[in-house]
Amino acid sequence: MDLLEYQVKEWFGKIGIPVLPSQRIDHPTDLKRLKIRFPIVLKSQVHGAERAKAGGVRFAETTIDAIAAAQSIFNLPIWGELPEVLLAESQYDAKQEFYLAVVLDTAVCRPVLLGSKEANIDWESAGEKMVHVVVEQEFSPFYARRLALKMGLQGTLMQSVSSVVEKMYELFVQKDLDLVEINPLAINAADQVMALNGKVRVNERAIKRHPDLAQIAANIISRHTSTEINGILGDWDGVEMHGKIGILGNGAGSVMATLDLVSNAGGKPGVCLNLRHAFLTDTAPTTFRDRLDIGLKILNADKSIQVILINFLGSIPQSEEVTEVIAKFVQQDKSELKSQVVRSNGSKSRREPNLLPLVVRLAGSEFNAAREYFAELKTHTDALIVVENLDEAVDKAVRLAKLTASKK
């Protein structure tokens, strides 16, 4: 999970890395109450790279110019993403610009300090332009000074840059990060340093250990579709695909096996979620019932999903409550569709109710009671299909997905 620049700057300022006076802009009219002096630079807050080339960075000398620039940036998509926030920042006169980063190198399983006297480069492809220092033992200022020396710095500038590197490493450890980057670190005529732009990449597995990160992730979830959520939240035993059949399972093996069977049967798997593990954003313990409830909502919110296939094999905690969650989900959807028909007041232009089918495969004697309960439930709704054989469940899900597609 990558933070936006204004969030990164807030972290930098709190930990002692020099940043310019800045202000978050949620609407162009916020610039009428700007607390920093002109001239300023307005920056689009998106995750896409090369925003300056795309027109997402504008300079302004007056309030009128700033409002006009902000209106333009707010309506400018960069790599398909429209900014919800802009960053207004004081301008800075730099005589030189450096690159600094602290990154987790998975090859050596150690943090690595990176530095270059050339800014605006990619650390993964910089080659000889980049110097590095591996933090082989407990961190000390020695590592930061060693990096500055390898960059060819001396005197006051060496001390200033190494001090910034120390703060970057402190943030890296404090927040369980994969990457802390300053690009560029500007140097003025007095050899003072200033972080003009920064990037922070959070280790997804660490999100639930930090309430502030969990809140940021929750805010991202509230603003994105479910397929985008998977891309943002990454590796929590979920697979993001773009097919029509959403899959829920209670183990990585069962999820992947179901995915393969759907593909082999001519179906197109969509988002696949393993409910055995907690969500990355969970700051408190969750039950299997909680994760099932959330998983169903995620798939139901995804407009590309036409069928949900559940494959539960083996022991599941709270099996009775799991049955209740599935029943409530199906019945709630049906009641919502009925209310939509009522609101249409019999108009000829109304859209026919389209209930999302749910195919449930329950394997094991512990689900006997659940299967009997669902058999009774089927008399009230045609949206639920319950079987014990996985091949049969996959076949029904694929057929339903194709049937739904042909109706559209």
From TrEMBL:
Entries under PROSITE patterns matching the protein: ATP_GRASP (PS50975)
Cellular component aspect of the GO annotation: cytosol; succinate-CoA ligase complex
BP terms from Gene Ontology: succinyl-CoA metabolic process; tricarboxylic acid cycle
GO MF entries: ATP binding; metal ion binding; succinate-CoA ligase (ADP-forming) activity
Entry-linked Pfam families: ATP-grasp_2
Stretches assigned to coiled coil: none
Keywords: ATP-binding, Ligase, Nucleotide-binding
ATP-grasp domain span: 9-211
Classification via SUPFAM superfamilies: Glutathione synthetase ATP-binding domain-like (SSF56059), Succinyl-CoA synthetase domains (SSF52210)
Protein name: Succinate--CoA ligase subunit beta
Naturally occurring in which organism (per UniProt): Komarekiella delphini-convector SJRDD-AB1
